[in-house]
Amino acid sequence: MLDLLVIGAGCSGLSAALVAAQAGLRVRVIAKGLGTLHWHAGTLDVLGYLPGDTPESIPHPFAALDRLPAQHPYARLGAAQVEAAMETIVASLNRAGLDFGPSAPDSAANPAVNLLLPSPIGVARPTWRAPRAQRAGELTSPQPMLIVGFSGLRDFYPALIAEHISRAHSIAARADWLPLATITHRRDNHPVHLAQALDDPATVARLGAALKAQVDTGERIGLPAILGLERHAATLAQLEAETGASIFEIPTLPPSVPGIRLHKALVATLAQLGVRVEAGMAAIAVHQDGDVIHSVETATSSRPLRHRARAFLLATGGILGGGLQSDAHGRVWESVFDLPVSAPTTRQGWFRSEFLDPRGQPIFRGGLEVNDQFQPITPEDSTGAPLLHNVWVAGNALAHADAIRTRSVEGLAIATGVAAAHAIIASLGSPPA
Q: Which of 92, 307, 364, 432 has fewest C-beta within 10 Å?
């Protein structure tokens, strides 16, 4: 029997599994798909904006956590616990070779400062930590930029990016293009194809020579996020050596190569700890005795597969990730254990009249209510009594946090995943021999 079954392979589930496995628990991760990291920019956002219609970004994310509503999961944890959880996962990612390094300190008194990096259209996106391949794009630096695209590559527009950077940040930014044949002769490509091609040193050398012919002295080079999958660090180092310039990646539309690198690093670290991460396993049934779950069944091509464990972590995401389901009448429910969801009770209450309302849409703050140990409780229950004795919840399945609107997706996932893992470790005690 497992000590912990994690349901969901996104950032919250993988982070929780990592902490639990490091504590000696026997852990397995199952998921319907591969999680949402393949959609993410590959950075670690803690808090970029406050809830509401405040347009200014947050420079000091941890210092701003006490300005969040009392119901927000961050408020339950506190800044010190959130920061400690983030540093725990950063340390593991650095050991895995991704080099998330330190944040950009602005003073010795408060080193936890958000970076400002270019988005796929060139506007600033605040983030707490970024991999080395993105950090040279810092928009507070005055160093000029050359944004390079590839003719025929969809959904990457260097002229638009350069124009937005120039106007908003007074940085001398210009655009240029290279033929796609510099990397590959395939006619239909997305970023993952190009990243795989750039795992070849000969292809990297060809790209490096082409970039060197374009870059002016003193410029840094911005490229779409395609600089290798398996040999990413070597590809970046080779390009910088051959061009003599600092190079940075700009995330593209999904599939996100930096997000895939992040996912692969976490899965590889878990594999070293003996944790299996298995996709294609949709939970279809639950076996329980009162408020204790004994096992979860997943679909297979023949008979269902039963997963027995002492504890279960629900990390299946929110309304966008499929962890919460809904119908045409406005009912919202949790998809594995059918737990009650705190959300607007009618479809009319789900949304505001404007699609891009700066306050966000109410439905995205829907989710599961939990107690201080991150166990699910009945909405409006002040006692904190868990509905299920051996189930915990983390990530976007939690109520009161619109993580996309506040740019806190990875921070919320990691902080609550690590907190839930610690609660599970304390509840189970030492694993049986």
A: 432
143's tokens: 């160093």
Which spans in 58-149 are helix H? 73-77, 79-95, 132-135
- The 10 Å Cβ neighbour count of residue 178 is 18
DSSP E strand stretches across 25-110: 27-30
Question: Which residues, listed in sequence order, are joined to residue 271 by a DSSP beta bridge?
Answer: none
**Whether pTM exceeds 0.85:** yes
The DSSP letter of residue 362 is G
Two tokens, residue 188: 């239909």
Cα angle 133, 138, 144 (rounded to 5 degrees) comes to 100
CA distance 142 to 207: 26
Query: pLDDT digit string (tens) for 364-408?
Result: 888 999 999 999 999 887 788 999 999 999 999 999 999 999 999
